[in-house]
Design goal:
By secondary structure, the chain is α/β, with parallel strands linked by helices. The protein has helices at 12-23, 60-70, 86-89, 91-112, 146-165, 187-199, 220-230, 249-259, 305-311, 319-344; strands spanning 3-7, 27-32, 51-54, 74-77, 117-123, 169-174, 177-178, 206-208, 214-215, 218-219, 239-241, 247-248, 264-267, 274-277, 283-287. The radius of gyration is 20 Å and the shape is globular. The chain binds NADP nicotinamide-adenine-dinucleotide phosphate and guanosine-5'-diphosphate-alpha-D-mannose (GDD). Guanosine-5'-diphosphate-alpha-D-mannose binds next to helix 6.
């Protein structure tokens, strides 16, 4: 039985990857941070099937111990402070976890089991102020946030350990991927959750920032397959994983509201833009400049040709399917909240 160690197992991608690896027959080990209240996050449903190890990306001692305990054949480094907006508020913590944390993990592998294969969760955020459209493995990087800068370090140190120590180390440059398990602060889930609450009369409107930002959005379940495929190749390499389609936040909002039965009409411009529910004339989307970023990534559009050709990776979940799944999930969640409240009255 192969052993895999997943850092960030409680997060969105960690949970889908754990499901995939368990299906493949791996012994799955997952790194968890100590919290005051035990919380398995997105892997609550798998808690009896994963071997949890308490560790932290900023503590190399704990990562060495995790390698010793798991004797992992494959490490998937998904742990990160992953919310771009927070990286301006906590630039140093972001760097400690997302940049130096990668070196900590690579060193732990080098010391304990250098034959172990390593996956680094790199990101399209490294392209930032994009130097080419679409972006592929050859596109120069220009990060626009402390998060992007920290991830760029993680990306290069992974390449450097591959070249310096001959480690089987790969980076997946993944474009935005979402799901029913996405954190509520990310724009897609913020919108689907708010749309569901508005449709069910639990909320009046949602406040957003830059509606014109464009992203290449796929589903996490498809993207974790690419991570696994990268570590099954004969040689280590870096790959862009994306859909090859890009849409604005405004378009995402239109689709999400449509999915819960609300047709939106836009009025006004810039900070005065309002999304109106055509059926009753009420404002359901407003702009709040507090959600603007100090430096914005305006356009991401990836070219997944290399991953498709060399890994045989295929995306199975379309954009419309992604939005519908998220919206339906949130409708169900809000209905359950309403039902639970009714029982307690
Ligand atoms: P996520 O849901 O935010 O999960 C992040 C995980 O990292 C959580 O399990 C979190 O644990 C853990 N973590 C944070 N700080 C840690 C620390 N100091 N030590 C140990 N664990 C720590 O993120 P995701 O969307 O699944 O993304 C997975 C990875 O892919 C991240 O590295 C992200 O930067 C990268 N990425 C994501 C996307 C995307 O669109 N989703 C695209 C490109 C790259 P807690 O539960 O304790 O907070
Ligand atoms: N979060 C958020 N909230 N974003 C908003 C809002 C809002 O109210 N209004 C507009 N946006 C815009 C942001 O300015 C950004 O341009 C876009 O929506 C997407 O924001 P997020 O969903 O927070 O994701 P991200 O693109 O910044 O980062 C995600 O994707 C990266 C890959 O490109 C994260 O998952 C990163 O971890 C990942 O590396």
């Amino acid at each position: 039985m192969k052993h895999a160690l997943i850092t960030g197992v409680t997060g969105q991608d960690g949970s889908y990857l754990a499901e995939l690896l368990l299906e493949q027959g791996y012994g799955v080990y997952g790194i968890m941070r100590r919290k005051s209240v035990v919380d398995y996050g997105n892997v609550e449903h798998l808690k009896d099937r994963i071997h949890f190890i308490y560790a932290d990306m900023t503590d190399i001692v704990s990562l060495i111990a995790a390698m010793q305990e798991s004797q992992a054949d494959e490490v998937y480094n998904l742990a990160a402070q992953s919310f771009v907006a927070t990286s301006w508020e906590q630039p140093l913590a972001t760097a400690q976890i997302d940049a130096l944390g990668v070196t900590n993990m690579l060193e732990a592998i080098r010391i304990v089991k250098p034959s172990c294969r390593f996956y680094q969760a790199s990101t399209s955020e490294m392209f930032g102020l994009v130097q080419a459209i679409p972006q592929d493995e050859q596109t120069p990087f220009y990060p626009r946030s402390p998060y992007g800068v920290a991830k760029l370090y993680g990306h290069w140190i992974t390449k450097n350990y591959r070249e310096s120590y001959n480690l089987f180390a790969c980076s997946g440059i993944l474009f935005n991927h979402e799901s029913e398990r996405r954190g509520l602060e990310f724009v897609t889930r913020k919108i689907t959750n708010a749309a569901a609450r508005i449709a069910l009369g639990e909320q009046e409107y949602v406040e957003l920032g830059n509606l014109e930002a464009k992203r290449d959005w796929g589903h996490s379940k498809d993207y974790v397959k690419a991570m696994w495929l990268m570590l099954q190749q004969d040689t280590p390499d870096d790959y862009v994983v994306a859909t090859g389609e890009t849409r604005t936040v405004r378009e995402f909002a239109e689709c999400a509201f449509r999915a819960v039965g609300i047709a939106i009409e836009w009025q006004g411009e810039g900070v005065d833009t309002v999304g109106i529910n055509k059926a009753n004339g009420k404002a359901v989307v407003k702009i709040n400049p507090k959600f603007y970023r100090p430096a914005e990534v305006e356009l991401l559009l990836g070219n997944p040709a290399k991953a498709e050709a060399k890994l045989g990776w295929v995306r199975e979940i379309s954009f419309d399917d992604l939005v519908t799944r998220m919206a339906n999930h949130d409708l169900e969640l809000v209905r359950k909240e309403i039902a639970a409240r009714a029982i307690n009255v």
